[in-house]
Design goal:
about 600 residues, alpha+beta, 16-stranded mixed beta sheet, two-stranded antiparallel sheet, 23 helices, about 20% strand, disordered N terminus
Amino acid sequence: MNQSLQASTLMALLFLGACAATPQQPPCPQGRQNMQDCPPVGAIHDPALQEHYQQRTRADVEALNIDPVKLGSSADIPANDALGKIIGSSYEDSINSLAAKIWMVDNADHTIDAVYYIFKRDLVGYALLGALCEAVARGVDVRIMVDSVGSAHQSHSELKALGNCAIDGGFMRNDGGAVTVNKARVQALVFGAISRLGNNVNRRSHDKLLVVDGAWPDKAWVMTGGRNISTAYYGLLEDGSKDPTAYKDLEIVLKAQPGVDISESVGQITEHYVSILLAIPGNKVLSSNLAHNKEQEKMRSNLASLRAMPDFQQAYDQMDEYLHQDLHPARSRIAHELGNIVNERVVSDYDKNLEKNPNSIVYMTKRLADMDPDNRTIRIVSPYLFVPEYERDDGSVYHDGSNNLYEWLAEHPDNRIEIVTNSVLTSDNFFAQAIIDMDTAPRLLLDEHSKKLWRRSLEKSELNPALVESEQWQDLINNPRVRIYETGRLDSDLLGGDVAYGKLHAKFFLTDSWGFVGTTNLDYRSRLYNNEMGFFFASEELQQALIDEFESLKTQSYLWGSSEWLELRAQVRELGGTKGSTVAKQRTTFTRLRATGLHWLF
């Protein structure tokens, strides 16, 4: 790690930890080591572990006059020598993803950090809490945070129950495996608690992140991507049967290359990121004087049920081998959108806000594009992809993403862009889908005349043969340099066929020389309001894995504007219900979103 990061972020975090000193152990007379907070006979004081223990302790940054967002935005974060693996969107990979999370928790020796936007109180949520409770019992220090909107609950009794697991928790072990006097804890928080006055309901932590043994380079695992903690993301129903409606998602798993110093380990740097995220003012620390025995029983029973499911059991049994195969060398670098949490005038001052956070995903993408403009193919997968268009206070447009794209294509005649996103069949957000179909795709593909016609009534647009069957339409939608695909086909089980396409939720993009996997949807909410995170990487093998995933998703899609795509929309309209009616009203929905300014919130 370079000196500037040591001088800013790392030292500030150490200062935070030192100010949140570890409570003194209670008197433990000989023969009374069975007291709850008394270490066993022979437990040692390890100064290095004690320092790390304090560093992991959340402090009141407001009282210390420290700005954690500024720390995260100004840190000069280096690229890391890592090993990486892609866990893709198939049903088998969904099960592997869940098995990997449980396996990592089961095999943690020292620490676990878990930060998730959605943490459901269902089979998967309680099972993971059960595994975390077992980890605390054997002496693993746990930090967990969920978003107050994505994981809304009036009491969060499940997280308070996890906190109670620390009452009878074990004591941490040092590098050599010796038991220390530091008792494992559970620090459970809610990000941006909406119950607190002054917190902005629009500023969310959209993170999905698991870090195990982050400060131990030879043991650490880091896992992030689009998957939240819910059965809906892992292809399972509560009874263990396959869920045909599950999200199709994707993640990246990283660990340090052998011999990497701790200060340059992807695990250690990601753990520092979690420390900053947890320290942000407005987060709520959870605690309870109640036993929550029923919640703890749910954890145990759901974990046992999950372990007994054949598909999960099979994946778990081979997880050690699975995680270490196809683990490829890579240069990786974490990026985030912490600035979004505090930015003001998020639309009219977008460019200025972006410059305040050089660690921003969008900012780093621009820098990489400027450094290597001759990447011939850009591939993007996102469930809610919007083309940015930002206005000044007087309503004039100062940034139009579609114009910028075509300027880039004109300057680089060999370059092209391909996009995979949701269709009206596979989307779970009809507001976002209205923006994609009435704004994103038309702005990237159609000329001004065709775009105006497309946004008119249903009868005058997609039901109008003079428009959608014309030679001009075919030329526009078959642009060889801009291709937009939407998932779902006419053989869908929802339309009477036998193929389950689920709901696209994966978020990644790549060029010929680098890629990114993370949590951002590349919509307005991700660009303007949410904190997002993920990893840029350079690795031929990981890039090929994403290309293979991209091509697989294309085979499950139709080209936007094609006759098959139009027929798919027609059949969805005929379904009726919410899906059918929202497709029929897409143009009205989009017009109202733009007229009210609500499109900025999707």
